Amino acid sequence: MTKFELYSTGLRTATLGCIEGLESEFSAEYSCDLFRRMCVSRSFEHRVKKEVDAGHVTCLVYLSLGQESIAAGISAAMSDIKPWVLGQHRAHATYLSFGGAPEPLVDEFLGLPSGCGGGMAGSPPIHDIDNRIIGHVGLIGDQVPVAAGIALTNPGDQITCFFGDGAAEEDYVLAALGFAASRHLNILFVCEDNDLSVLTPTKTRRNWQITDVAGSFGLETIEITDDPWLIAHWAGRLKGRPALMNIKTCRDTWHAGTGNDGPPEWDRFQLTKDVMVKIGLSAEAQQIEDDAKVKTEELWAKRLQIQSAS
Amino acid sequence: MGETVADTIRELTRQHIADNNGLVLGQCLSAVGWVQNTVPAQEKGIEELPMTDIAGAGIAVGAALTGRRPIFILRFQSLIWLNASPIINHAAKTKALFGYGCPLFIRASGDEGNSMGPVHSGTHHAPFMYVPGLPVVAPMTPCEYQEIWAHFMDHDDPMFVSEHRISYRNSEELADQYDDGAEITIFAASASRFQAVDAAAKLRQEGVGVNLIHLVWLKPLRIPAAGIGALKSCGNGLVLDSGFEVCGASRSIAYDLTHQTGIAVHALALEDRSSGVAKNLENISPQPERIVAKVKNILGK
């Protein structure tokens, strides 16, 4: 057991690990910022979906819809530092929440040379080295040992490394977790646990919890739901040391592409809006959501115009 | 005896750590003679990785992405299959996908004979020649090693360095050889170069003139214009290598030379079978006798 309370139940609920009244401990400004980060990602993803469905984006896309709160909470907790960020293949929300430039992201989907991968890379390898966002090559969990290498050679910097519950089963991911613990590397590992590897649920794949394994290596661990305030709360406490957060979340759309198989187990975006109303930020939340949609529309309209002219 | 290849590697490494804040990563580096005395016996700049091959290569890639220009050491090149994924999928593709380099110096130490058996012997640079974005070199002399190191430091690409333990004690440079009236031009890579020198001497003793061209850069393939001219003049060619022949570097290079010159260039390398530990079951670089026999076969003698 670590000094933090270890939730290693394997349970999936919208309230796992929630702390009563936690949102009230944050300022209104902070809550609005959290929600803004979610809205930016969500409106962006809806627009990607629209363009894919219209046939304007033809590359495979891995949408973050439903999982936006994780990147929002982690990035908000690290807004006072400049971490190295290694996203997984489903990284649009990670990229945007950590300050990745939106124009090259759109251009990448449109196959333009001004895309962040020059049109070579598509959805998983989005990156912005100026903002310390390292691209993912598309191989599941590849980024985890790479994050350990960056941490090894940059001991003064915070490293944040995202991966999914499927990647958690890769031997090299587990080995990298052990290496980070052994060398006491400054990495916060974030497992975005949507319980699915493509469509295969976790219980079909394994009978162990990543928090148990990581904890046995010596990482500090926590297992929680994807409430953005709860994520920011724990990320703020776990940064600066080797640690792992396993965050239960719900993927709205297919593994790749824009389809879905019915409503998710819970709708974190709506739950977050409900909390914003509860803490008296209803008008602000609506304004934030509307602004995000407008900016996203403007962004895409401009980039599509450039694509048409090219 | 002057400075050997092992001395050269060790001193370049020591300087890299001292002058460039360089880093060396690998498994069991300090054990059993510091990788054939090619690693400086010091703690500074030496990172002993856990016995985790895939993750170890990924850690080396991460170190390369943020500027330490790490040297990643594989004590046995035949174990590279485990390390390959981060090298192929990340280091080699970084520039194409992201626009910046991943300068990782991969020291892969080949070996053969000595009862090393089916897993710990062999050189396997051929599969890496197949990968875009990954230069592959096989230096066998001190000066060649210094040159490829200088190239690495001047560029931001990863580099697959196919070393061979046979070369570590070598202190001699290997110059290309041109014979007046040569009947065949031999192109040799890796440890087969040492055997090719002896084979050329034997052939000359039997009255067969030979050109011998030493290959260091396997990808991109670098052959001096004089070597291509020599091949065209004599009309017969043979490529030697220390890896497997079937689908290997020797046949790939022979194919390139054939198409470049219109001359049917042959290949000779390891047989298509695993090496055994028993002496009679080993599978090693073509020996002089085998090379001579192959040349005579090509020439119809």
Report on this model:
The complex is a heterodimer of chains A (310) and B (301). Chain A is 44% helix and 11% strand. With 310 residues, chain A is of the alpha/beta class. Chain A has a single domain (27-309), classed as Rossmann fold, CATH 3.40.50.970. In chain A, the strands form 2 sheets. A 6-stranded parallel beta sheet of chain A has the order 2-1-3-4-8-7, with helices on both faces. The radius of gyration of chain A is 18 Å and the shape is globular. Chain A starts with 27 loop residues before the first helix and ends with a helix. Residues 1-7 of chain A have low confidence and may be disordered. By secondary structure, chain B is of the alpha/beta class. Chain B has 12 helices and 11 strands. Chain B is globular and about 55 Å long. Chain B starts with a helix and ends with a helix. The interface between A and B is medium-sized, with 33 and 31 residues.
Topology:
The complex is a heterodimer of chains A (310) and B (301).
Chain A (H helix, E strand, L loop, with lengths): L27 H26 L14 H10 L6 E3 L5 H6 L4 H8 L23 E2 L8 H11 L5 E6 L6 H12 L4 E7 L2 E2 L2 E2 H4 L4 H8 L2 E6 L2 H11 L4 E6 L19 H11 L3 H28 L1
Parallel strand pairs in A: 1-2, 1-3, 3-4, 4-8, 7-8
Antiparallel strand pairs in A: 5-6
Helix pairs in contact in A: 1-2, 1-10, 1-11, 2-9, 4-11, 5-6, 10-11
Chain B lengths: L4 H16 L3 E3 L5 H6 L8 E3 L4 H13 L5 E4 L5 H12 L2 H5 L6 E6 L6 H4 L5 H4 L6 E2 L4 H13 L4 E6 L19 E6 L2 H14 L4 E6 L1 E3 L5 H10 L2 E8 L4 H13 L3 E6 L17 H12 L2
Parallel strand pairs in B: 1-2, 1-3, 3-4, 4-6, 5-6, 7-8, 7-10, 10-11
Antiparallel strand pairs in B: 5-9
Biggest β-sheet of chain A: count, sense, barrel?
Answer: 6 strands, parallel
Helix content of chain B: 40-55%
Topology of chain B as a string of helices (H) and strands (E): HEHEHEHHEHHEHEEHEEHEHEH
* Helix percentage range of chain A: 40-55%
- Beta-strand content of chain A: 5-15%
The CATH superfamily of the largest domain in chain B appears as Thiamin diphosphate (ThDP)-binding fold, Pyr/PP domains
Radius of gyration of chain A: 18 Å
| Mean pLDDT over the full residue set of chain B | 96
| Strands of chain B, total number | 11
Q: Within the CATH hierarchy, at the fold level, what is the topology of the largest domain in chain B?
A: Rossmann fold
Largest sheet of chain B: 7 strands, mixed
Strand arrangement, largest sheet of chain A? Answer: 2-1-3-4-8-7
As a percent range, the share of strand residues of chain B is: 15-25%
| Gap from first CA to last CA of chain B | 39 Å
